Amino acid sequence: MKKLLLSSVIVLIGFTFIGRLSYLQLFRFSPDQILDDPAIKKVYDYPERGYIYDRDGKLLVGNQPAYDVMVIPREVKPLDTLEFCGLLGIEKEEFLSKMEKARVYSPRLPSVLVPQLSKEDYAKLQEKMRHYNGFYIQKRSLRYYNTKSAANVLGYISEVNEWDLKNNPYYVAGELKGRTGIEQQYEEILRGQKGVKHIQKDRFNRDIGPYKDGKLDTLPQQGKEIHITLDKTLQEYGEKLMHGKRGGIVAIEPKSGEILAMISGPTYDPALLVGRERSKNYSKLHYDTISKPTWDRSILAQPSPGSPFKTLNALVALQEGVINEDTNFRCYHGFYVGNTLRGCHCGGGIRDLNSGIYQSCNAYFAGVFRKIFDKYNTTDQGMNVWEKHMKSFGLGGYLGTDLPTGAPGRIPDVAYYDKWYGDGRWAASTIISNSIGQGEIAATPLQLANMTAAIANRGYFYTPHIIKSIGNNGKIDPKYTEPNYTTIDRKHFDPVIEGMANVYEYGTARWVKIPGIDIAGKTGTVENYIRIDGERMQLTDHSVFVAFAPVENPQIALAVYIENGYYGSRYAGHIASLLIEKYIKGEITRTDLEKRMLEKTLEHEYAKPYSGEPFKINEYVW
Amino acid sequence: MSGRGPFGRLDWISVILYALLVFIGWLNIYSTSVGDADTSIFDFSTLYGKQLFFMGVAFLGIIFVLFVESTFFERFSSIFYVVSIILLLGLFVFGKTIAGATSWYDLGFFNLQPSELAKVTTSLALAKFLSDIQTDIRTGKHQIYALIIILLPAILILPQPDPGSSLIYFSLFFVLFREGFPIYYLGILIFAVVLFATTLMFGTVWVSIGLIILTLLVYTFKKASVKIPLLPVLGVIVVSILFSLSVNFVFENVFEQRHRDRFALWLSLEKDEDKLDEIRKTIGYNTYQSEKAIESGGFTGKGFLEGTRTKGDFVPEQHTDYIFSSVGEEWGFLGTATVILLFSLFFLRLIYIAERQKSDFSRMYGYGVISILVFHYFINIGMVIGLLPTIGVPLPFFSYGGSGLIFFTMLLFIFLKLDSNRLKDGI
C-alpha cells in the first residue's frame, strides 16, 4: 500500500488532467473559433461607394473626401488646449468633454474627436497636426450631391445601428449603410465588398504584425455605379415648381414603367444630411411634424384620388357592358348620397361619357356607378367585380416598386363595408361617393401616375421602378420589364381617352392647353379634413391632376397632388402642364404661367388651421 | 558497466526524459517570448536566450553533482539545511522584492531564490533524519521532529509572501507515508477537503443527507461477515456535520474576498453571468485566458509559433507559471497529452529507481524529489487548466526562470547520482 501510494496518485493525476484537457480541447473546441479570436483584429479596407447617375448619364451622387480628427487618449501629451481648439474650431469645454468621452471609451483605441472637417479646415490643420501627439487625421469618403433635388428618392446613408448589427453580420459598428431611398434599396450594389486585413494583436490591443502573413486577407470589391430612371432636369424643375407647396408629383414613362420624376414638397437639399451638421439638420427635418419634409408624399401620402378616379369607373362600366358611349344621365346640379344632395359643378344638363369626363360631372358618374352594381343580383357580387377591376390598375395594394417604402392606398371591399355598416346594411347608393373618387378610396400619387400610365397604354402597365441599369448596362429585375394587364379590354380605352383629351379642349383644364402637344388629363378636387386638438375641420380642397401626353404614343404620364391647392386645374393642372412641356419640348413657352407657378406659395393655406382663428376655405383668390 | 567514470551507471531513461521536458519547455518559452523572427536564439536579452543560458548553468550543475563524492550530500545535509534556513531568515533583512514577494537575493548577475534551494536541502535533511538508525517514525516524538524539518522552511516562506512555495513543502509528507507514517492522516485530509468543497457547492443540508445515505448504502451492501461498529461511524458523521457547519462560517469570516472569489471561480459557485464576467476580468483573468488559450488549440493545435493568444500575450505570466497554456494552444490536445504522458512516465520511472535503492537515505531522498516534482506538476497544471484555484508555482523544467531550472536539476541529479552509486552502498 505505502509503496503504491505515490504511483497511484501520479496515475490518477494523469487521468484527471487528460480528462480535463479532452473536455477543454475536444469537447469545448469549435473550429470557427479563429474568427472570434480576440488576438486577431480585423482591419477593413473600404471600397468607394458606387456613383448614382440619372437616366441620361448625368451624375446625381458621387463621393467626396472628408477628414476626421482622431485621438488616441493615452498617447496625448500635454498641449496648448486653447490654440488647438482654435485650430479645430471648437470650444474648450466641448474639446474637454469629447476627450473625456474618448478616454472612457478606450484609452488605447482611436476615437473620433471632430468628425468630417471641411477641405479648408483640413488644409489648415494638416501641417500643424504633427505637433500634437496622439491626434491624427483620418480620411473618409462621404456622399457628394451634384443636385439639390431628389433627397427622398436618393435617400441618405448613416451609421449602422444595433438592429443592423444584429441582423446583418456584414456590418461592423461605425460603418455606414444606406438608410432610405435608393441608398437603402441598392445598398449591396453601391457599397461593394469591404476588404479585410487580419492583424495579430497583443493583449494590450497593440498591432504586432499581419496574422499568418496575410493569407486570409481579402481585397475590397468596388461598389457598382447605378443609373436610375429619374430625369435630373425634370426632377429639379418639378421641385422648383413645388416651392412653397405641399404635395407629391410622380411622372412615369408609360412604355417602360420608368419613374421620370418623384417629387415631394416640401423637400430639402440632400447635402444637408452629410458632414458635420448632419445630426443637427436631421433633427430639424425629422421634428418638423407639420410640413414633414422627410415624409415622401409622392409615395406615402394617400389622399382620396378625386375626379381622376371617374375615368376608371367609366372603364369598368364599359367593360361590364352597363353603359356605352351614348348612355346619358341628366345632371340636376348634383346627386344624392342617401338623402343628402351633393353638388356638381358641371353646369347641369344631359351628360354622356365624353362630356361627363371633360366636365367632370358628378351626377353622371353616380349614375354609372349605380349601373355597375345594378347588373348583379347582390351588392356583394357587384362590389367584388368592381374591386377586382380597380385592383388590376395597381390600386389598393403595394405596387412592388424598387423603392424601400410605400403605401398601399385603399380600394374598399365587401368586408370593409360589412364591418363599417354591418352585414348587408349598405348598397351602391350608400357608397356612391366612390363613384367620384371620394369616399373610402385612397391612392398615393405614385398609384395615380401608374393608373394614368395604364390608361395611356390602353390597358396595361409596367411595374413602376427607379432602377435603369446596374454597373455598365447591367440587367435589372425582369419583373420590371413584364407588362401587367388590367381587366379592361383595349377598345374601351379610346372613348375615355377622348374624354380626357377634351378636358383640355373644352373641359375643366382648357386654359392650360399647351400649343403643339395633345394632352389627355383629368382634374380632381378633393375635399379633406384635418383634426387638430380633437377638433375636426375642413380645409381647402386638395388640387389633383393626372395627365399623359402625347395622346398618341405617350411619353409621359403623371399625377400631381397639391395639398389645399383648391380645384384641380388651379395648381395641379398648371404644374402638370409645365412639367409635360418641359419634358417633351425641353423648354417652356408660357413664361408668365411658369413665373406665377414658381412664385406662388400656399403657405397662407397651411397656416390657417394653426392660426387659432376662424378661417375660410376654398377662397377664390390668388 | 561499473567503473566508467561519473556517467557510467546513470539512469539514462530518466536523463532523456528530463532533457525532453527541458527542451519542450524551452520551445514554448521561445514561442511566448519571440518577437521579430530574425533575432538569434542566443540573444541573451530575450527570455528564451536567458533560459538557454540557465540551461547551460544547469548543465554545469549536473557535471558538478556527478563529480562530487556521493556521500557528500548525505554527510553535509544537516549543514545545508541550516544554511538554507539562515538564508530564508536573511531574506527578512536583505531580501529583494520582485512582484510583491520578498523572495530573492540580488547577486548582481543573478537573483537567487533560497526557497528553491531549501527544497533540495529540506529533502536531504528529511532523508537524513529518517534514515538515521535511531529514528522511528511511528513514535510521536519523531513524527514531530520530522514535521518540524518540513514545516520550518514552509513557515519562513509563507510571509514573503509565497504561499505556493510554502505549500510545496507539504508534499514531503509523501516521504513520511512511504516510511510508515499512518496513511489515514492523508485520508482524513482528503475527506476534509472534499467536505469543504461540497459544503460550499451544495450546502450543509445536502452534504449531511449525502453522508447519511452513503453510510446506509455501506451498511446495506457490506458482506454480512464484515462488522462495522455503529458508534464510531455515528461519531464520524456528527463530526463531519459539525465541520461542514463551520465551513460557511470560516468561508465568510476568515477568508478574504479575493480568496472567496477564487473559490467561487474554482467550484463554479457563482452563477450570475455579470458577476462571473467581473471575476473573469479581475481575479479569474489569468485562469480564464489560460483556459481559453488551451481550448482554442483544439486537437492538433494552431502550430508552433502560430498561437495567436500566445503571440498576443493574452495569458499573463505565460512564460513562467502559465507555460502549459502555450503547449495547449500551439500543440493542441496531442501536445498536452504528450506532455502529461512524459511527466507521468518520468515520475513513475523515478519511483521505480527510488524503490530499487539499497540505502534508506537514497530511497527517502528520492521520494522527496519525486514528491516535490509531482506537487509542482499537479498544482501548476491543475491551475492552468482550471481544476485548481490560482496558486503560483512553476512547472518543473518547463517554466522560465534560472533558480527554478537549476535547483530542480540539482534536486533530480543528486538523486540520479545517488542511484548510480547504489551498488557501492552498504559496502
Automatic annotation (TrEMBL), chain A:
Penicillin-binding protein dimerisation domain span: 46-207
Keyword Metal-binding: no
Its membrane topology: Single-pass membrane protein
Top-level taxonomy: Bacteria, Pseudomonadati, Bacteroidota, Flavobacteriia, Flavobacteriales
Places the protein is found: Cell membrane; Membrane
Cell wall biogenesis/degradation as UniProt keyword: yes
Protein name per the record: Penicillin-binding protein 2
Organism: Flagellimonas aurea
Keywords: Carboxypeptidase, Cell membrane, Cell shape, Cell wall biogenesis/degradation, Hydrolase, Membrane, Peptidoglycan synthesis, Protease, Transmembrane, Transmembrane helix
Domain Penicillin-binding protein transpeptidase: 247-577
Principal location: membrane
UniProtKB/TrEMBL annotation, chain B:
Subcellular location, record wording: Membrane
Keywords linked to the UniProt accession: Cell shape, Membrane, Transmembrane, Transmembrane helix
Membrane disposition: Multi-pass membrane protein
Chief location: membrane
Organism for this UniProt entry: Flagellimonas aurea
Keyword Transmembrane: yes
InterPro entries: FtsW/RodA
Stated name of the protein: Rod shape-determining protein RodA
